[in-house]
# Entry
Amino acid sequence: MQHDVTKIRIFGRFIYPVSFAEESALFTYILRRLALMVFVLWGVTLAAFLISHTLPADPAAAILGNNAREEQIIEFRAKNGLDQPLPVQYGRYMLQLVQGDLGKSLRTQNPITEDLKQFFPATLELTLIAILFSLLFGLPLGIISALNRGRWPDLLARIFALLGGATPVYWLAILALSIFHEKLGWLPGPGRLDSYSLPPPVKTGLMTIDTLLVGDKQTFVDALRHLILPGIVLGAYSAALLTRMTRSALLEVLGQDYIRTAKAKGLSSRRVLNKHAMRNAALPILTVLGALFGNLLTGAVLTETIFSWPGIGGYATTSAITLDFPAVMGVTLIVGMAYSVVNLLVDLAYALFDPRISYS
Amino acid sequence: MHKLRILTAAALLLSLGLLSSQADAQSARQSTFVIGGDFNDLITLDPGVSYEFTGSLITDNLYDTLVAYENNDLEKLRPRLASSWKVTATPTGSRITFTLRDAKFSTGRPVTANDVVYSLNRVIQLKTPSSFLLTDVAHLKVGSITAPSSKVVVMDVPKAANPVIVLALLTFNVGGIIDSTEAKAHEQNGDFGTGWLKDHSAGSGPFTLNRWNKNAQVALDASPNAFRKSASIKRVILRFMPEAAAQQSALNSGEIDAAWNYTPDAFNAAKASGKLNALKTPTFQLTYLGLNSAKGMPFEDARVREAVRYAIDQDGIIKSLLQGLGRKTQTIIPLGMVGADPSISHPYNPAKARALLKKAGKENLNVEFSVPTGSCPGGVPCADLAAKIQADLSKVGIKTTIKQGVMSAVLTDYRAQKLPMLLMYWSPDFVDPEGNATPMSDYAAKSLAWRNGWKNATAAKLAQSAAVETNQTKREAIYKKLNALMVKDGPYAILYQPAVPIVISSAVSGFNRDANGNVQFEKISKK
# Structure
């Protein structure tokens, strides 16, 4: 990424008129990043494999349990190649991986790809709602806070930021369930749908989309309502962080000379904020948002556990406890991939806000 | 005026429609039973493969076995698919002849003796984790089970196996009878239909599988063809709710009808509230201390092992930590099972423990104490239980250093005979004292006695002779002797026999969870 003056088109929007050379520079940049991603993901698999295997425990013993006989343990190890040296095991895994095969879960014998197809969309849906909540809540609150520096709205926003950042998700989840579901009955409880209803056939794995695809509006509303509490709980920390980040970024920009100049030129406060201040404050906010997305994906496990959300967090936990290495590797890979893609998108999005950024 | 009439009529029709749809929803709720629990152990719904608690709970309602236990009486076998059976002696062992009742699978096909032969043979051939019950315990082979007619099944049991135990094994889901035509139709690469039966059903039980959304729910629908008809409940939904707090919230708000994993605190609060039914359901599980008795290990001397048993305050553990969710027992055969002997007792006696340690010359013993992380049976954190044991043992001069590890790591070391002392639990594989006796007392079985480095020829001989004894009175007498020997000399200090706390809505009746973890959903009704 270079910060020299150039023009670019991104997401179909013309920031400046672009030439063919500049457009191809962007594609080269994307291709380079994608190639780099392959190496990053390879590093992730190696690290995950080594860390998983440093545990002084036998996956066969963990999966077959206390009652399993010694013959069963030996047979299980042989069947799943666990009796082979680590380099051989890793080599076999990588050989499968380059063919697009994530292998089979040691515990369930299900193809990992099938498992991930089921669990990842549930987490993604929850994460997107959490991000939406943190954006809808954190951004305006940060702006209000910065524009009212030192006054009561600022104080309230800072208290929220402090509480949101310091409250343990686990506690917040139980509290939210107890008050808004159990006591007040305003919002539904654990799960993705009402306990008595059955989900529609899985098409995308995103419950809201799947219910719409079969035209079941009632279940769609139910699915949407079920996203509110866990979405808010999961997004609370991000909203708090975003509030603080927006506040500090905006405060820094609002003190710049060009803002004073814009105001002196007679521009309205709204125009100064939208056209000049927010645009310049957006880069650090965008960076944080990208990092938050990755954190939410991996950090959803507690929220998922309390809200009985059948996502990747619960799958990862069960797999880790039972030393189901292929499943752990699968989760690590998909989360790593999602994280890398989001970071790439964030890097590309910089150009939307700052025309000086070039990818040539 | 005319318009007003039309409007009134439309409003009336709309209200009637709404009322009727509300009534339909209410009736659907009344005929649906929802349980919330930690069902994450579920791997497959194939009865021949499943070896987990949740798998067993569900397949018991999807499939019928030849014989079964009913309600909480796990000592008396009852007819199920077999209307009667007869055990006769043969020169090679014994023969069990089953006569089948008229029954139909959910697919509509009649249950035949050929289906029984296919179902049991496939378990033998599949070599799954549960196959050993038929191959190694019952010593059955392909060819041991035959079908002389469509209603008669003959099982030839060799001398090495006890027909009493074989019948007990057949009550487990491994003995579930599958529609062979359906299974064969879905076979792939000689898998006996396991791939398909993992998330489909083809049994004659009171329910059929509607769907299984992994980690979310399992839905069962009442089967119209079943002879164990579900009169009231038409659908059962098992909701995956791993967290006890979520279960409580969902039960209090009416989202679920039963919760599977209450904590002792929450269970007692529910019991005190009087609004819910708090059921303390039994188990055959034993929570115990493993005392490594191998040469050079801290518990090599039998007096030291006995001292530990006298030093543990079992009543204190059950009352304060488990809050009543456990029973006091000290024998290796759990209470409620044939061969259990509640009269054998080891009273809490720290003075005697100190005296035994003095005699053994181990007055200042230092031991590493391995403890798994997480919850122990009965809902108590293993760390809390370990702290109580540490305090009890320190009173008699045994100093323990607690070493906590994830279950997989603890089990790996336990299997390698490396642990001097550990906190662990055990459930028998089947409802018979043999499920505990051999693993816990016979070193050669390479199970618990082996892991604790304990070798006792008398105990092994008692377990072996009880395993083949067909006379129930004689068998019970042997187990009594074995229990007494183990309490005096064995490598375990049994801490308690836990109960599973289940809380159900007061609108539910007919709910019964047996010590094996099974519930007959067809007997449940809702107000």
